């Protein structure tokens, strides 16, 4: 029996708490750079990318419709390095996320090798859940009660 893990695909859909409706068209290497997606509450999310070896000048963030794209190009040393062990990866990347409708990017910060993008869900007032009062026709029942009492 074959087991397929689809969770890495759905990690890229932010703001969709139910199963995503569509699968991304482009299959990209979602293992690099490593990132976290955090849901702080029902309206606030954040994406944190670990970008060791990158400088702020080599990073770009673009929002086109619901598509958030983060690109990075490291500034590499010209001198050739001979590693005894190379565990840190520092290569060019492009990572895309599909945001839910009404999701906005609040801010982005790059500190200590971590790029943190803050997202917020703004649901318009007309689309927010609202309480509907239930009214009854008490006059109908009081009139009915009067008719019943008058027959006696």
Automatic annotation (TrEMBL):
Q: Which UniProt keywords apply?
A: Chaperone, Stress response
Do the record's keywords include Transport?
no
A Pfam family found in this protein is HSP20
Superkingdom: Bacteria
Query: Which segments constitute the SHSP domain?
Result: 26-137
Q: Which family does it belong to?
A: Belongs to the small heat shock protein (HSP20) family.
Which PANTHER family would you find in this protein's record? PTHR47062, SMALL HEAT SHOCK PROTEIN IBPB (PTHR47062:SF2)
Q: What is this protein called?
A: Small heat shock protein IbpB
Task: Give the organism the record lists.
Answer: secondary endosymbiont of Trabutina mannipara
Q: What is the lineage of its organism?
A: Bacteria, Pseudomonadati, Pseudomonadota, Gammaproteobacteria, Enterobacterales
């Amino acid at each position: 029996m074959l087991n397929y893990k689809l969770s890495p695909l759905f990690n890229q859909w932010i703001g969709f708490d139910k199963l995503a409706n569509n699968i991304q068209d482009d299959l990209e290497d979602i293992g690099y750079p490593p990132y976290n997606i955090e849901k702080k509450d029902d309206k606030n999310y954040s994406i944190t990318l670990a970008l060791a070896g990158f400088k702020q000048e080599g990073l770009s963030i673009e929002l086109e419709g619901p598509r958030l794209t983060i690109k990075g190009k490291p500034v590499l040393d010209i001198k050739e390095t001979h590693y005894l062990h190379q565990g840190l990866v520092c290569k060019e990347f492009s990572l895309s996320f599909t945001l839910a409708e009404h999701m906005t990017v609040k801010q982005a910060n790059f500190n200590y090798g971590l790029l943190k993008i803050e997202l917020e869900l703004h649901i318009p007032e007309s689309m927010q859940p609202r309480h509907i009062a239930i009214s009854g026709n008490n006059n109908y029942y009081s009139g009915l009660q009067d008719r019943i009492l008058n027959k006696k």
